[in-house]
Automatic annotation (TrEMBL):
The lineage of its organism: Bacteria, Pseudomonadati, Pseudomonadota, Gammaproteobacteria, Pseudomonadales. It holds the Pfam family T2SSE. It comes from Pseudomonas farsensis. It comes from the Bacteria. SUPFAM superfamilies: P-loop containing nucleoside triphosphate hydrolases. InterPro entries: P-loop_NTPase, T2SS/T4SS_dom, T4SS_GSP_E_ATPase. Belongs to the GSP E family. This is CpaF family protein. Residues 83-365 form the Bacterial type II secretion system protein E domain.
Length: 418
């Protein structure tokens, strides 16, 4: 059993909640070991009762001024640390929290309502953060150590996890969790939150029904995956969809979906399966539409080729600051593959593949919305010819302006809808 005054003595432990919690944590671990009981593998109520008794014993012997409520709360936190995800437990259970960001042991941020805010939650130390990381990753079969200090994974509930530790993370281990929504958003939710208006909704329905190839563009956390989910709800149920993602996040409410996920290399550097390989394989699976979670590397050539070879109605996302920049971003990604393609040929390839680019943004108040919809018409004098269909009117109350009298792309025009 540990001594009565660990970590600097009784006075400091009583004055500093974190020191007290650290001392109690050590005390409880020692008590479990001394008891010879396998409490950590048993039922939570039995462990909780044991921890509460130990907390009461410790507080009583040191005569600390803690109320019953404070002791129970400390006991619950220690049980969470022993069996679950420590300070993250309460955040993972809170449906209003959409993202959790841990910057070292003493700074925990959350996103709620589209806005970031710092919480008063803290870990005991850097080792505590790493223990929680390992607890999250262990069931996923993912490795996190000095030889592999970065991990991108998906939790059993679908939440996306990114973990990074020293020496790559200079200020301590960092963890990012983008929580998985159990209640999938619907088109009506976008209208209610003013992410789109009725005219944009009608246009999107038309574009999807006429099998336009759609690229959703925006920064991190602007709602690209959410919009992709909603667009998929507009696809006819008799069509066959194949989705390809690095980490499966799409929740396609569709009766005929084949979901594919890339695989990182193992500890020996073998076994990697890239998005470009999955796209090529998907072409052999008789898809009506291919939905690529995000274009970020060499798969750009394969997805553009697929859009150009009979797989109309395909969709993907890309990180870019504007709809026009999204087209240039695709060019840049092709260049990074090392393939030598003439600029004119490349732009013709992009234009032949894409019909509509939807740009998303996140406003200062946290609201996510469509900021621009661009139709891609063609190339003239080696320059993209585009038409802005809708844009966000930031000066007129942040409503939407319809830029064209009859917004419809080349494909819609060919279908006789213009």
């Amino acid at each position: 059993m540990s001594q009565e005054q660990p970590f600097g003595g009784t006075r400091h432990a009583g004055n500093d909640p974190q020191v007290l919690k650290r001392a109690l944590h050590r005390h409880v671990i020692d008590a479990i070991e001394d008891s010879g009981r396998n409490l950590l593998e048993g039922a939570r109520p039995a462990l909780a009762q044991f921890v509460l008794e130990q907390v009461g014993d410790y507080v009583g012997r040191l005569r600390l001024a803690l109320s019953r409520y404070e002791m129970e709360r400390l006991g619950e936190e220690i049980v969470d640390e022993l069996t679950g995800y420590g300070p993250l437990e309460v955040l993972l259970r809170d449906p209003s929290v959409t993202e959790i960001l841990v910057n070292g042991p003493y700074r925990v941020f959350i996103e709620r309502g589209g806005l970031l805010q710092q919480t008063d939650l803290r870990f005991i130390d850097a080792h505590h953060v790493e223990r929680v990381m390992q607890r999250i990753l262990a069931p996923l079969g993912r490795r996190l150590d000095e030889s592999s200090p970065m991990v991108d994974a998906r939790m059993p509930d679908g939440s996306r996890v990114n973990a990074i530790i020293p020496p790559v993370a200079l200020d301590g281990p960092c963890l990012s969790i983008r929580k998985f929504r159990q209640d999938m958003l619907k088109s009506a939710d976008l209208l209610a939150t003013r992410a789109i208006d009725q005219a944009i909704f009608d246009f999107l329905e038309l574009a999807v029904s006429q099998r336009c190839n759609v690229l959703v563009s925006g920064g991190t956390g602007t709602g690209k995956t959410t919009l992709l989910n909603i667009l998929s709800q507009m696809i006819a149920p008799q069509e066959r969809l194949v989705t390809i993602e690095d980490v499966a996040e799409l929740q396609l409410n569709h009766p005929h979906v084949v979901r594919l996920e890339t695989r990182p290399p193992n500890a020996e550097g073998n076994g990697e399966i890239k998005a470009s390989e999955l796209i090529r394989n998907a072409l052999r699976m008789r898809p009506d539409r291919i939905i690529l979670g995000e274009i970020r590397g060499a798969e750009v050539v394969d997805v553009l080729t697929a859009m150009n070879t009979g797989h109309d109605g395909s969709m993907s996302t890309v990180h870019a600051n504007s709809a026009q920049d999204a087209l240039l971003r695709l060019e840049t990604l092709v260049g990074l593959t090392g393939r030598q393609v003439a600029e004119k040929t490349l732009r013709q390839m992009v234009c032949a593949a894409l019909d509509v680019v939807i740009q998303l943004t996140r406003l200062a108040d946290g609201r996510r919305c469509v900021s621009e919809i661009l139709e891609v018409i063609g190339v003239r004098d080696d320059v993209y010819v585009t038409n802005v269909l809708f844009r966000l009117d930031r000066r007129g109350g942040e409503g939407f302006l319809r830029e064209a009298p009859n917004p419809a792309g080349e494909k819609l025009r060919h279908e006789g809808l213009r």
